[in-house]
Design a protein that fits this description.
This protein is an alpha+beta fold and about 290 residues long. Helices cover about 45% and strands about 5% of the residues.
Length: about 290
């Protein structure tokens, strides 16, 4: 095995590097410790399900599922509360009681005798899809294939696309070499994952062929994010930078999913840009 040499040597402790993160958009809330930072209860509404979220791709996975459950005819009702992650609202005592990891989305199901807390978008989505018997194939083999894509999304597509977005848009502007390395490393991986999705959708309407499933709900928001968001201050966006239009099968799939009312509404839940219209903006537009 070849040993590579480097001009960079790490300090004895990571604490000596904390200041190097100063200047990124979230540096004011980044800490190496977990737990509540402020004592504050969460708001609650009257519906059985309480959702605490923001219209990021991770939040949209759950809100799209909720709206698709409603579209499918389920007797499903939820209250939605916007969590401003830039202000650290995910670190209040009320939030961390539901989600010790301090990340959106998180959820409380009060339909059961004892309220059930739910965190991590994959866990929330699987819980409600199974509870209402929607969007999960009954055939064991097809269910396994669906689960393959759900966990691919959770373990690869989401984290890698998010890291690309951090270095491309949010990392400190003065860290030129760091940003170029991070953008190249994660941008290339984001492209590879788009290609995985694109090849899987060749000749198919959905990831499971002709059957719409939870796999499509989970994989859509992060691909949509690369199509429409991550806009650099220079005017270059992720879609242009990564040549997202080259993934024609995924683009067709994405456009078709956007025709579904559940997807249209789910994308808007807890939207920061429409917060003046409430957490379900379409309700104020009627």
């Amino acid at each position: 095995m070849t040993t590579q040499t480097s001009d960079w040597n790490p300090p004895k402790n990571i604490k000596d590097l904390y200041e190097a993160t100063d200047g990124n958009q979230f540096s004011g809330i980044n800490r190496p410790t977990a737990g509540a930072r402020v004592t504050k209860a969460l708001d609650q509404g009257d519906c059985p399900v309480q959702l605490y979220s923001l219209a990021t791709p991770n939040g949209q996975k759950v809100s799209i599922l909720f709206e698709e459950l409603i579209e499918s005819g389920c007797q499903f009702a939820y209250d939605a509360f916007l969590i401003n992650i830039g202000e650290g609202e995910q670190f209040t005592s009320g939030f961390t009681e539901l989600n010790p990891n301090g990340r959106i989305p998180t959820c409380l199901d009060r339909n059961e005798g004892n309220p059930i807390r739910l965190f991590e978008s994959g866990s929330i989505a699987l819980y409600f899809a199974e509870k209402y018997n929607r969007f999960i194939p009954s055939d064991p083999g097809r269910k396994a294939e669906m689960m393959n894509w759900v966990f691919w999304q959770m373990g690869s597509q989401g984290p890698m696309s998010g890291q690309f977005g951090h270095f491309f848009v949010y990392a400190p502007g003065s860290k030129h070499e760091t940003r170029e390395y991070g953008t190249a490393r994660y941008g290339m991986e984001a492209q590879r994952l788009c290609d995985v999705l694109d090849q899987a959708l060749a000749g198919k309407d959905y990831l499971l062929g002709d059957e719409f499933s939870l796999a499509d709900i989970m994989a859509f928001p992060w691909f949509h994010q690369l199509q429409t968001s991550y806009n650099h201050a220079s005017g270059i966006n992720a879609a242009e930078f990564l040549s997202v239009s080259q993934y024609e099968n995924a683009g067709r799939w994405s456009r078709n999913l956007l025709q579904r009312p559940g997807f249209q509404r789910g994308l808007q839940v807890c939207s920061w840009t429409q917060k003046d219209k409430g957490t379900k903006p379409w309700l104020t537009e009627k």
